[in-house]
Inverse folding.
C-alpha cells in the first residue's frame, strides 16, 4: 500500500501493445515535484504513452498494467475525471474566451470574486498583470505559454503531463519558460511526466530520463 | 437500285394516302357551303396547309394525366405523318401558366415570336386571355372540320361558359361531372345534393371537394348553386347565366353559403383543409380516406383501376338532380410564330379519326364534340368500334339525368372571393 | 508576387469579375423586375402609375397575418430544431465512432431533392400512410384511415418536420466538414482534449470549448438555410396547409393566377417575402447575441458536468426516431413504387409489380435527357469559373474580399421566388428563343455558390510550396494549374461536380420559369405528379430523383480510387 499523503504517480507494470506487438514496457514511480522525462524518436510510442496516461488510448492499442494517482487506482477512470493536467507545445488557448476566461474555465467552481482575485494574483506572479481582459491571440508566444501553464496549474491537477512543451519557443524564451514551469511543478509538488526531443529539456528537468527505442 | 425503288414507292404511297385523306376531310364542307365561298375557303385552307407543314408546334396542355399525355403523343405521331409537323407537348400543372407566359411576352413587346403555339383552355382562362387580347382571332370557325360539330344547331360549340368564342378557339371535347364510390364500402351512394348532405352527416370525413378557384372544386360549387336555386323564379335562375351583379349575388348566393355551413363540419378534415385538385381526390379515394368523390373525366376511373390507383370495386354514376357539363377548347395565342401549323393541328384534333380515338375508354374516354349525324359513313365507322370495358366505365344514371350548363364565368371570381373570405382562413 | 502576363493569367485575372457579374446581374435585375410591378408599374396590364395599391391589396388578403406567421414560424422553428439536433448529435457523439455512422446514414439525405423528401414524408404521415398502417388495427383499432391532422395541418407542423429533416443533414455535414479541416478540426479536437484534462466531461467540454468556435464557421450556412426555408415552395406546397398557405406558396399561386391583375399583388408579396426573410435573419442574429450574452459567465464558471448522460440518452432517442422516420419514409416510397392495390390497413401492398417502373421509364427518356444536359452544362460552367476564380486568388495572393464572398451567397440568401419571376422578364428582354440556355443560366445561379463553397477550402489548403517548387523548376502558371493543381485536386473537383449536378437536378422553380415550361426534367415531372393522382408513379419519380444524384456521388467517390489503384 502506497502512502496517501505524499503526492505520487505510479505506473505499474505497463505494457502497451499494438496487435500483440509490444511497443513499450514501463514500471515507474514519480513523487510530487519530480519530472520523469521520456525521450525517443518519433514512432517510439511516446504519444501513445501520454494517451494512455490521460485515458485516451485509441482502440487500436491494448494496454495492461495499472496507473495509481495519489494511491488511488485510476486506470479505469475516464479521462476527464482523472485530474491529470496536460501542457502541449501549442498553448491551445480558447479563442472565444479572454485570458481571464481561459483560466477561469480551468478553475473549480466557486465564488466569482475569489476566482477573479486568484487569477489576478497568478497573472502577476508570471509577469502578466493587467492582461486579464486581453484576447489570447493578441499575446506573444511566450505570454501564451505562460497563460497555458497557469490554466493547468489553477485547475488544481493531481499530476501534470508535458508534451514537447517548449519546442515551439526560441532558445531565450525557452529557458525562461522552462524554468518557470519546473519551478511551479516543484512549488505545487506535482508529479510530472515530460515527453521531449530535446536533450537540454531533459537536463533542465533534473529527473530520471528514459530513452525509448524506435521499434518499427 | 432495288432499295431506292422501294423508297420511292413507299413515299409515293404515303403521299397518295394523305391526298385521299384530304379529300375525305373536304367532303362535309362541300355539303354545307355554296360552291363559290366553298372554293374560296378551300383555297385558303390549301394555303394554310402549304405554309403550315414542316414546322414545330408547342402545345401547352395540362400534363397531369398519363392517359391524356399518351393521347397527345398519338396525335403528335399523326400530324408528323400527315403534315410533317413536330408537335411538342408542354406539360402544364395549371393552364394559367401558359396564360401568364403569353402575358409576359406581350409585356416584353414580343408580338411575333411567342413560345405558345396552341393551348388547351376553357372557362375563366379563356375569358382572361380574350379580355387581354392574347388570342388569335377568327380562325376556329374556318377550320374544315369545325362544320362537323354542327354549330348552327349546337350553340355550345361557339360559347365558352356563356362567352362567345368568336373564332378564337376550336372545340376539342366535352365532359360532365361524374361521381364515383367504392361499392365495397358504400352500399347506397348519395344521388342528389340533399342526399349528399345527409350522407356526410352519417359518414363524417369521407367527402370533400378541391379548394376554389380550382376548376373541379368550382364546378362542384356551381352544381350546388344551380340545384339550390332551382325553386327560384325563372328570372332569378337566368341571372346565373349572365354577368354577376350585387343584386343577383344577393338573390342566389346565400343558399349556397347556408348549404356549405352545414356541409363543411362533416367534410374530410372537418373542412379545415381542402385538396388542391381532382387528382388529389382520386388519390385520397384510392387510400380509402374518401368514400365518395367526383371527377370531370369519367374515363380516368377505369384506367386508374387498371393502374391500381383505385380499388377494383369502384363504380361511377351521375347525380339524379343534374350533372354540370362543359366543353373544352384549343386556342392559338396572338403571337404564335406557327399560326398555320397550329391550325392544322387544331383541325386534326377535330377530325373524326382523332375524336373517335379520344372517346375510347381505353384511350382517354373524353366525349366527342362532333355531331354524329353530320358524318359520312366512313367517318361514322371510326365511332362504331366496340371495346371491352371495366364495370366502372358504365356510368349509372347516364341516360336518366339532365346536363346542367355552365354559369357565366364572372360567377367563378365572385364565388372564389366570397368562399375565400368565409372559409379560406381557418 | 510577380505574375507573368499570358493569356492564361489574363483569363484567370478577369474570372472573379465574370463570376461576380454572373451572380449579381441576374439577381439584381430579377429584383428590379418584381420591384417595378410591386409599386404599380406593369405596362402590359395598362398600369403605368406608381403607387402602393399592390401592397394595400396584399394586406387586405384574408389571412395574410396567418400566411406571414406561418412562413416566419415554420422556417425559424425548423432551422432552430435542425441546429439544436445537429449540436446535440455532435456533442453526444464527438470522438465517438457513431458520428461517422450517423454521417453515413444522413449524408445521402442531403442529395434528396426537397420535392422528393416532401413526397416521402407525406406518404409516411398521411392518415393512410406507413406510420398509421404500422400501428393499425392492432393498437389503434382503425380499419379505415383516420381523419387526422397530418399532413397539411394548419400549424405547419408537417412543414417543420419536412424542413428540419432536410436541413439537419446539411448542417451536420457542414459542421463535420469544418471539423475535417486540419487547421481547424485538429486544433478544436486538441482543445477538447485540454478541456477533458481539466476535468470537463466530454459533453460540457463540447458546449464550452468547441461550440463557440465551431458556430462561427456555421453561421453563414445556417443563415442560408433559414433564408431558403422561409421562401421555399416545394415542401409547404406538398406538406403545408392551404387555408391559408405560406406566403411563398401564395405568391407563386398569385403569379400564375388566371386573374392577371394579381401579378401586382404577387410582386408586392415578393417584396414582403424579402422583408420576412430579412426579419428572420435579424431574429436569428438577435437570438445569437442573447445566447452569447447569457452564456458568457456560464462558460467560465468552472462547472464541469451538466447532466451529460441525460442529454446523451435524449440525443440517442432523438437520433433513433429521426433515422427511423427517414428509413420508414424511404421504405414506404419503395413499396408504393412496386405496389399493386394497397388496401388499408395492410402493412404491405396487396400485390407487388414492376409495372409502374416500366411505364415510367419509357416516358422518362426526354426529361432524363434534359435533366442530364442541363445539369452537366451548368456544373461544367460552375467548375470552370470556380477554378479560375480560386486560381486568381492564389496568383494575386489574397482571398476574395468579404463583399465578394457574400455575393457568392447572394442567390442562396435572397428568396428565389422574389427574383426568379423578374429574371424571366429579363430573359424576355434579352432573348426569348434559347430556352435551354436560359435554364442552364438560371441553374448556374444556384449551382455556382455550392460548387465554389465546396471547392474553395481544398483549393486554398493546397500546400503553396508545391507551386513554388514547380515554378522554380521552370513551370509556367498554366502548366502548374493544369499539370499540378488539377491532378492533385481531382477528388475534391469530382465531389464538387457531383454536388453541382445534385443541386441542378433538384431545381424546380428555376427550371419551370426559365424554361418557359418547355423543358421537362425529372424534378418538374415529379412535382407535377406529386399533385397528381398516382402515388405509385409519383413514388417512382421521387425515387428516380434520389437515385440520380446518388449515382453521381458514388461515381465521384469511386473514380479517383480506381485511377489511383491503376497507377499502383
Amino acid at each position: 500500500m502506497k502512502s496517501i499523503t505524499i503526492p505520487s504517480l505510479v505506473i505499474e507494470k505497463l505494457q502497451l501493445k499494438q496487435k500483440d506487438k509490444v511497443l513499450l514496457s514501463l514500471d515507474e514511480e514519480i513523487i510530487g515535484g519530480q519530472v520523469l522525462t521520456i525521450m525517443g524518436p518519433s514512432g517510439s510510442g511516446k504519444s501513445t504513452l501520454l494517451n494512455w496516461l490521460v485515458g485516451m488510448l485509441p482502440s487500436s492499442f491494448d494496454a495492461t498494467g495499472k496507473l495509481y494517482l495519489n494511491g488511488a487506482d485510476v486506470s479505469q477512470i475516464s479521462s476527464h475525471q482523472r485530474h491529470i493536467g496536460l501542457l502541449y507545445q501549442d498553448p491551445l488557448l480558447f479563442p472565444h474566451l479572454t485570458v481571464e476566461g481561459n483560466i477561469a474555465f480551468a478553475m473549480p467552481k466557486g465564488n466569482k470574486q475569489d476566482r477573479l482575485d486568484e487569477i489576478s494574483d497568478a497573472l502577476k506572479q508570471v509577469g502578466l498583470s493587467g492582461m486579464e481582459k486581453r484576447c489570447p491571440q493578441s499575446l506573444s508566444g511566450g505570454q501564451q505559454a505562460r497563460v497555458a501553464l497557469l490554466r493547468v496549474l489553477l485547475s488544481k491537477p493531481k499530476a501534470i503531463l508535458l508534451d514537447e512543451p517548449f519546442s515551439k519557443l526560441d532558445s531565450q524564451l525557452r529557458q525562461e519558460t522552462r524554468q518557470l514551469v519546473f519551478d511551479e511543478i516543484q512549488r505545487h509538488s506535482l508529479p510530472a511526466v515530460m515527453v521531449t526531443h530535446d536533450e537540454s529539456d531533459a537536463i533542465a528537468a533534473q529527473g530520471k530520463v528514459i530513452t525509448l527505442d524506435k521499434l518499427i | 437500285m432495288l432499295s431506292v425503288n422501294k423508297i420511292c414507292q413507299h413515299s409515293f404511297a404515303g403521299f397518295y394516302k394523305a391526298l385521299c385523306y384530304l379529300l375525305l376531310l373536304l367532303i362535309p364542307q362541300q355539303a354545307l357551303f355554296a360552291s363559290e365561298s366553298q372554293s374560296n375557303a378551300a383555297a385558303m385552307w390549301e394555303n394554310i396547309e402549304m405554309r403550315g407543314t414542316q414546322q414545330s408546334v408547342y402545345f401547352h396542355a395540362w400534363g397531369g394525366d398519363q392517359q391524356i399525355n399518351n393521347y397527345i403523343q398519338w396525335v403528335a405521331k399523326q400530324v408528323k405523318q400527315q403534315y410533317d409537323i413536330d408537335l411538342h407537348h408542354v406539360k402544364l400543372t395549371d393552364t394559367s401558366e401558359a396564360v401568364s407566359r403569353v402575358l409576359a411576352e406581350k409585356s416584353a413587346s414580343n408580338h411575333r415570336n411567342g413560345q405558345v403555339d396552341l393551348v388547351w383552355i376553357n372557362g375563366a382562362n379563356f375569358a382572361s386571355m380574350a379580355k387581354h387580347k392574347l388570342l388569335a382571332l377568327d380562325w376556329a370557325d374556318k377550320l374544315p372540320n369545325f362544320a362537323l360539330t354542327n354549330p348552327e344547331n349546337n350553340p355550345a360549340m361557339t360559347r365558352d361558359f356563356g362567352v362567345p368564342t368568336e373564332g378564337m378557339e376550336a372545340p376539342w371535347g366535352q365532359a360532365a361531372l361524374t361521381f364515383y364510390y367504392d361499392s365495397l364500402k358504400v352500399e347506397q351512394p348519395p344521388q342528389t345534393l340533399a342526399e349528399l348532405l345527409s350522407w356526410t352527416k352519417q359518414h363524417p370525413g369521407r367527402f370533400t371537394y378541391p379548394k376554389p378557384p380550382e376548376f373541379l372544386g368550382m364546378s362542384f360549387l356551381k352544381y350546388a348553386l344551380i340545384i339550390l336555386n332551382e325553386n327560384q323564379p325563372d328570372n332569378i335562375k337566368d341571372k346565373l347565366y349572365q354577368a354577376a351583379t350585387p343584386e343577383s349575388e344577393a338573390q342566389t348566393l346565400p343558399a349556397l353559403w347556408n348549404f356549405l355551413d352545414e356541409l363543411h363540419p362533416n367534410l374530410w378534415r372537418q373542412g379545415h383543409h381542402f385538396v388542391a385538385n381532382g387528382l388529389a381526390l382520386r388519390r385520397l379515394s384510392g387510400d380509402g380516406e374518401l368514400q365518395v368523390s367526383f371527377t370531370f373525366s369519367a374515363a380516368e376511373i377505369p384506367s386508374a383501376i387498371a393502374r391500381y390507383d383505385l380499388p377494383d370495386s369502384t363504380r361511377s354514376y351521375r347525380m339524379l338532380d343534374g350533372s354540370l357539363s362543359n366543353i373544352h377548347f384549343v386556342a392559338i395565342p396572338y403571337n404564335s410564330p406557327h399560326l398555320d401549323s397550329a391550325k392544322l393541328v387544331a383541325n386534326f384534333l377535330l377530325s373524326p379519326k382523332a375524336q373517335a380515338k379520344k372517346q375510347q375508354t381505353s384511350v382517354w374516354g373524353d366525349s366527342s364534340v362532333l355531331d354524329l349525324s353530320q358524318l359520312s359513313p366512313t367517318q361514322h365507322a371510326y365511332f362504331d368500334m366496340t371495346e371491352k370495358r371495366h364495370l366502372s366505365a358504365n356510368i349509372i344514371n347516364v341516360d336518366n339525368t339532365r346536363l346542367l350548363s355552365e354559369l357565366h364565368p364572372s360567377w367563378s371570381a365572385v364565388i372564389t372571393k366570397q368562399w375565400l373570405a368565409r372559409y379560406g382562413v381557418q | 508576387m510577380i505574375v507573368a502576363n499570358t493569356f492564361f493569367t489574363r483569363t484567370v485575372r478577369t474570372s472573379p469579375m465574370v463570376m461576380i457579374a454572373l451572380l449579381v446581374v441576374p439577381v439584381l435585375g430579377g429584383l428590379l423586375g418584381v420591384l417595378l410591378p410591386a409599386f404599380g408599374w406593369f405596362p402590359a396590364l395598362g398600369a403605368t402609375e406608381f403607387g402602393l395599391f399592390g401592397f394595400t391589396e396584399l394586406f387586405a388578403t384574408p389571412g395574410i397575418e396567418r400566411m406571414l406567421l406561418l412562413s416566419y414560424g415554420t422556417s425559424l422553428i425548423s432551422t432552430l430544431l435542425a441546429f439544436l439536433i445537429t449540436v446535440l448529435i455532435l456533442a453526444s457523439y464527438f470522438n465517438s465512432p457513431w458520428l461517422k455512422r450517423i454521417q453515413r446514414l444522413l449524408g445521402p439525405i442531403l442529395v434528396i431533392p426537397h420535392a422528393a423528401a416532401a413526397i416521402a414524408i407525406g406518404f409516411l404521415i398521411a392518415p393512410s400512410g406507413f406510420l398509421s398502417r404500422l400501428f393499425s388495427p392492432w393498437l389503434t383499432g382503425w380499419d379505415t384511415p383516420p381523419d387526422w391532422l397530418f399532413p397539411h395541418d394548419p400549424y405547419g407542423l408537417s412543414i417543420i418536420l419536412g424542413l428540419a429533416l432536410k436541413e439537419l443533414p446539411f448542417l451536420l455535414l457542414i459542421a463535420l466538414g469544418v471539423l475535417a479541416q486540419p487547421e481547424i478540426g485538429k486544433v478544436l479536437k486538441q482543445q477538447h482534449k485540454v478541456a477533458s484534462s481539466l476535468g470537463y466531461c466530454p459533453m460540457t467540454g463540447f458546449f464550452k470549448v468547441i461550440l463557440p468556435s465551431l458556430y462561427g464557421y456555421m453561421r453563414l450556412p445556417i443563415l442560408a438555410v433559414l433564408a431558403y426555408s422561409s421562401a421555399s415552395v416545394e415542401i409547404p406546397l406538398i406538406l403545408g396547409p392551404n387555408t391559408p398557405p405560406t406566403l411563398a406558396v401564395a405568391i407563386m399561386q398569385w403569379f400564375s393566377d388566371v386573374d392577371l391583375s394579381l401579378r401586382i399583388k404577387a410582386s408586392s408579396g415578393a417584396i414582403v417575402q424579402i422583408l420576412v426573410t430579412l426579419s428572420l435573419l435579424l431574429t436569428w442574429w438577435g437570438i445569437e447575441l442573447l445566447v452569447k450574452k447569457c452564456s458568457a459567465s456560464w462558460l467560465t464558471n468552472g462547472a464541469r458536468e451538466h447532466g451529460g448522460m441525460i442529454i446523451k440518452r435524449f440525443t440517442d432517442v432523438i437520433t433513433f426516431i429521426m433515422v427511423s422516420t427517414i428509413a420508414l419514409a424511404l421504405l414506404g416510397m419503395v413499396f408504393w413504387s412496386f405496389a399493386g392495390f394497397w388496401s388499408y390497413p395492410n402493412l404491405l401492398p396487396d400485390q407487388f409489380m414492376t409495372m409502374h417502373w416500366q411505364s415510367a421509364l419509357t416516358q422518362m427518356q426526354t426529361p432524363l435527357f434534359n435533366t442530364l444536359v442541363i445539369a452537366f452544362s451548368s456544373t461544367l460552367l460552375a467548375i470552370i469559373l470556380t477554378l479560375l476564380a480560386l486560381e486568381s486568388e492564389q496568383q494575386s495572393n489574397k482571398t476574395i474580399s468579404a463583399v465578394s464572398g457574400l455575393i457568392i451567397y447572394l442567390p442562396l440568401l435572397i428568396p428565389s421566388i422574389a427574383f426568379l419571376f423578374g429574371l424571366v422578364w429579363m430573359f424576355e428582354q434579352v432573348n426569348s428563343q434559347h430556352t435551354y440556355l436560359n435554364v442552364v443560366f438560371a441553374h448556374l445561379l444556384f449551382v455556382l455558390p455550392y460548387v465554389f463553397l465546396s471547392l474553395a477550402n481544398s483549393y486554398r489548403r493546397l500546400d503553396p510550396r508545391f507551386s513554388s517548387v514547380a515554378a522554380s523548376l521552370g513551370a509556367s502558371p498554366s502548366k502548374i494549374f493544369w499539370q499540378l493543381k488539377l491532378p492533385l485536386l481531382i477528388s475534391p473537383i469530382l465531389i464538387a461536380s457531383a454536388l453541382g449536378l445534385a443541386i441542378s437536378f433538384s431545381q424546380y422553380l428555376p427550371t419551370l420559369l426559365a424554361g418557359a415550361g418547355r423543358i421537362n426534367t425529372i424534378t418538374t415531372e415529379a412535382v407535377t405528379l406529386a399533385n397528381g393522382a398516382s402515388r405509385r408513379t409519383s413514388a417512382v419519380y421521387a425515387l428516380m430523383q434520389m437515385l440520380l444524384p446518388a449515382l453521381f456521388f458514388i461515381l465521384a467517390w469511386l473514380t479517383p480510387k480506381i485511377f489511383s489503384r491503376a497507377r499502383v
